[in-house]
Each structure stands twice: as C-alpha cells, then as structure tokens.
TrEMBL record:
Its cofactor is heme. CDD domains: CYP51-like. Pfam families: p450. It comes from Ceriporiopsis subvermispora (strain B) (White-rot fungus). SUPFAM superfamilies: Cytochrome P450 (SSF48264). PANTHER family: 24-HYDROXYCHOLESTEROL 7-ALPHA-HYDROXYLASE (PTHR24304:SF2), CYTOCHROME P450 FAMILY 7 (PTHR24304). The chain crosses the membrane at residues 25-44. This is Lanosterol 14-alpha-demethylase.
Length: 542
C-alpha cells in the first residue's frame, strides 16, 4: 500500500460509507488534489524569489492566502507580519497581491504617490459604483473626482456649518425625547438607569443629523417614510463580500441595485420639484451643487447631483456613527474624563442649573477637552483601517522605507495593490507612549508626539489637487482622515457632527459602562465596536 493510500484510506473509507455510490477514484481525487495544491503552494513559497519583490507572507492556501487573518484582525495581522518581514511585505488576499507599507514613511509612499501610478478608482470602483451610481467619484477620471470634491467643499462653507450646529443639537434632543431607547430619560426619573444599544443609536442619530443638514429637508422629512429602507438595502451592499465578488446572484445584490435606482430617482425628483418651485437656495449641499459648474462651463447633470448626494450619505454615515459610538463608549468607561467634559460644558456655556446657552460653531473650537476626546478616539479607532491603491506601473520602494540590501531596492510590480494603514501608525508604540491607552490628555502636551503628529498633518507644504489648498501631510503618523489627493473633505463636518452629538448627550445624561469594553468588529467595511450597551441616567437638575 502506498504512503498516499495509507494516508487517505481511513477518510475515503468513511466517505465511501457515507456516499456509497461515489466511485473510489473520484474520492481519491477529491481528497488528494487539494492536498497537492497546498503542497505545491508551500513549495512555491520556499523557492528562491526575485529579490526585488517585497517578502511574501507565508500562507497555506493559494488564492485565499492571508484573507482569514487579515479579515479577522488587520491590525494584529500587520503587527505580526511587521515583526517577521519589516515595514514592507506582500500578502495574498483572495487572489490579489497586496503590498503593505507601514509607518509614517509607508503612509507617505502610498498616500503621497502620483495618481497616474497609484489609482484609487481601480480598487474601490467595484464596491462603490453600484452604490453611488454612474458618473461620480470612482466612475470618473481622477481629475473629475477632484472637481466633484471641490463642489462639495464649496458647499460646506463656514456659514452653512454654523447653521448646522443648532440643527444637530435639536435633532439629538428630539431623539432623546422620543426614541424608545431613552424611555427612562423621558420618564423624567433621575434615579433610574436605562441602557441603549451603541451601534443602533448612533447609526440613527448620524443619519438623522446628516439628513437634516447636508442632505436637506426633503430627505429628512422622508426618513420615516421609506427613505430609511432604501438606505438599509443600499447599505447591505456595502460589505467586504460585495467588494471582493461583483454581481453574485444573491438577494442582497438585487436589493442594492433596486435601492440605488430608486434613491437616484428620489433625489432627481427633489431637484425637479425645487426647480419648479423656484426654491434653489436651501442650506444643504444639493442646493449648492445645482449652482456650480465644471471647469468647461457645464452644469452638473441631475443624475450626477443625485449620485454625489448618495456618495456623501454613504461616506459620512459609518465613519461618523462609529466615531460617535467609540467616543461615548470611552467616556462611559472613564468617569474622570466624563466629569471633565461635563464641567467644560458648564463653564463654557454658563449653566449650573441644567440650562445651557445654545452652542455656536465658534464654541466648538474653544472646548479643549471635547477636542482632545474626539482626537484621541480617532487615533485609536479610525473607521478605515486599510487605504488601498492599484499599482499602474512598476513602483520602486524608497530605500529609507525598506530595501532588500544596501545596494538594491524593492519594486512593487504593476498590477499589485498597495495598502497603507494609518490605523496602525496611530497605535504604533514606536511613536506613541502607552499607545494602547485611551488618554485624551496626551493632546494637551504641546511638545508630545500627538501635537507633533497633528502639526505634520496640518502644516508644511500646501498642495492643490483640484479641491482647494490642503497640507500635503502624508508623512504624519496621525491620519484618520487620510492625506493627499484622496484626503477626506468631510473632516470639518464630521468634527462638528460628532462634537455636537457628544456635547448634547453629555449635557443631558450621566453615562456608565456595565460590561467589558467592546472589541472592534472588523467584519464590516468600517471598524465599529462589537455589540454593546451604554448605561445612562438623566442628569438630576434637568
Ligand atoms: C475620504 C475618513 C467623514 C466624505 C476619506 C478618507 C478617509 C476618510 C481616511 C481617505 C480614503 C482614501 O484615501 O482612500 C473619514 C472619517 C470620517 C469621515 C474618519 C468621520 C469621522 C466623512 C464625511 C463625508 C466624507 C462626513 C461627507 C460629508 C469623504 C470623501 C472622501 C473621503 C468625499 C474622498 C474620497 C476620495 O477622494 O477618494 N475619508 N471620513 N467623509 N471622505 Fe471621509
């Protein structure tokens, strides 16, 4: 009996018993071919490699590669790979070759690259095009995306942001007064504690506040009448599965496509109604988009405006809601910081009896505790853990980042994907003291790593990629909003939204965490806390 037969005989015996009609040869093939494929894959990795290629992360299964380890805990995976291979290495992700570049120099290498060499659209389009729709964002050449980003940036003037502060505050107070999760609060009982689901509550507050402000009154008014369902169907198409596998014959894909078509029509209908009613001067982004022109003088077509609005809805939803959720969880878990935050509200807004003067846009810049709390939360929990680009032509790695030897360089071949992870550089013990500790006070130290990282992001060379001057900032270890030409344009709005939501809640509620601090859930597109509850009580002088 051959070694192979000895090895497989017991298994084929069992299977033959279970499936008596399957011929033995088929069984033999079913068991041995996968083993052979795994063996060949291992041998291939042990063969001498082209020394200009970055080291390849060892994996057992071809095609699948390191997908399970990366998908379960990307930061842990990068940390382990870094120990073994250094700051630059390649791993296999469902058939794709992904070269990771870590640390501030890795951020600079990827986020500061030329778009003719590093294309975001080639990576993100399969996920986002079916959701956003045609002719926007990654469905257009990069220079058109830059113009579209400028349109949105122009729409987010200080004057608009100023008006949004009151709207967000009002939405949050209304939520507290009406949502079933805050029944205890509504009962006016100052002794009783209630609990709310973190993810659900902040998802709802975020979409309500974004629709009341950026999205406009028609969207806000329809939130309870069907728009929320369309959003849900669209959102269920925003998953790693839909990114990796296009157009599978599954219900979620069909619902996604139907929701996109209906939502697009919904926005275009609003546009037509506004034109017919002559009401084109609202406080929202749509109104501003209706008045803008591309460089060649052309106005935006209705479907482009509709699809930019959908893109903004999606770009701002999970990012802001997970940021608010993590922020509140940390505050609930840190009574001292909770007290300091509340004290700051009392001192700044002049109340000892539960009556606060209304918040203004300018106030938000004068609340150092709130500012530090949000910054520190974004340091530890940036919603986006991997920023990717497709390599269009062979790309040498700067030797200061990583090199095979003193006189040679690594080259990332065309066709590879490259990946930067500011999420890792933001918790890198090489940069941050007590990196894994949530400590807002680190942001008060003007000479500390946090302040230095922020300066690197905010100051230095200014560049205009087509959507206004921004600091290049790509070499900072702290980049929750990305950097370079794909840098976030929602940063100020997000700070304002999260800041007002947190302030309003802190003014009205005492918070507590009655469970272990939740772990991050990496199975979603944006990192959010695993299912968790925050315990609350109405502040006693309300
Ligand atoms: C881009 C983070 C909120 C709109 C980005 C990027 C990051 C990011 C890291 C860069 C992606 C890349 O380089 O591939 C965040 C965080 C947010 C937030 C942490 C909240 C806490 C928002 C909001 C909006 C928005 C509220 C809309 C109003 C965009 C847009 C881009 C972008 C349009 C540009 C995409 C590109 O140029 O490819 N954001 N974002 N974001 N974000 Fe945000």
């Amino acid at each position: 009996m051959s070694l192979n037969a000895t090895f497989t005989e017991p298994w084929s015996g069992y299977i033959a018993e279970a499936l008596p009609s399957v011929p033995r040869l088929v069984l033999f093939a079913l068991i041995n071919i996968p083993l052979l494929v795994v063996a060949l894959n291992v041998v291939y990795q042990l063969l001498p490699r082209d020394r200009s290629l970055p080291p390849l992360v060892f994996h057992w299964l071809p095609f699948v590669g390191s997908a399970p380890a990366y998908g379960k805990d990307p930061i842990g995976f990068f940390t382990q790979c870094r120990e073994k291979y250094g700051d630059v290495f390649t791993f296999i992700l469902l058939g794709r070759r992904v070269t990771v570049a870590l640390g501030p120099k890795g951020n600079d290498f990827i986020l500061g690259g030329k778009h003719t060499v590093l294309a975001a659209e080639d990576v993100y389009a399969p996920l986002t095009n079916p959701i956003f729709g045609k002719d926007v964002v990654y469905d257009v050449p990069n220079e058109v995306l830059m113009e579209q980003k400028k349109f949105v940036k122009v729409a987010l003037t200080t004057e608009k942001l100023r008006a949004y502060v009151h709207m967000i505050d009002e939405e949050v107070r209304n939520f507290l007064n009406t949502d079933p999760a805050f029944q205890i609060y509504q009962m006016n009982d100052i002794n009783e504690w209630g609990a709310f689901d973190t993810i659900k509550t902040f998802a709802e507050m975020t979409i309500l506040t974004a629709s009341r402000t950026l999205q406009g009154r028609e969207i806000r008014n329809n939130m309870d009448k069907g728009f929320a369902h369309l959003y849900t169907d669209l959102d269920h198409g925003f998953t790693p599965l839909h990114w990796m596998f296009q157009d599978l014959p599954l219900e979620s894909y069909r619902k996604r496509d139907a929701a996109q078509a209906k939502m697009s029509e919904f926005y275009q209908n609003i546009l037509r109604n506004r034109r017919a009613a002559g009401s084109q001067d609202e406080d929202d982004v749509m109104s501003s988009l209706m008045q803008q022109r591309y460089r060649d003088g052309r106005a935006l077509r209705d479907h482009e405006i509709a699809h930019i609005m959908i893109a903004l809805l999606m770009a701002g939803q999970h990012t802001s809601s997970s940021s608010s959720a993590w922020t509140l969880l940390h505050i609930a878990d840190s009574p001292e910081i909770g007290k300091a935050l509340y004290q700051e509200q009392v001192e700044h807004f002049g109340a000892g009896d539960g009556h606060f003067r209304p918040m203004e846009y300018e106030d938000l810049k004068k609340l150092p505790v709130l500012d530090a709390v949000i910054r520190e939360t974004l340091r530890m929990h940036p919603p986006i853990h991997s920023i990717m680009r497709k390599v269009k032509s062979d790309l040498p790695v700067p030797p200061t980042l990583a090199a095979p030897s003193e006189d040679s360089v690594y080259v990332v071949p065309a066709g590879y994907t490259v990946l930067a992870s500011p999420a890792l550089s933001q918790v890198d013990p090489l940069t941050w003291k007590d990196a894994q500790k949530w400590d807002p006070t680190r942001w008060y130290d003007q000479d500390g790593a946090a302040a230095m990282a922020q300066r690197q992001y905010d100051e230095g060379t200014k560049v205009d990629f087509g959507f206004g001057l921004v600091s290049k900032g790509t070499e900072s270890p702290y980049l929750p909003f990305g950097a370079g030409r794909h840098r976030c344009i929602g940063e100020q709005f997000a700070y304002l939204q999260v800041g007002v939501i947190v302030s309003t809640l802190i003014r009205h509620l005492e918070l507590r965490l009655d469970q272990a601090f939740p772990q991050p859930d990496y199975t979603c597109m944006m990192v959010q806390p695993k299912k968790s509850q925050i315990v609350y009580r109405r502040r006693h002088f309300d």
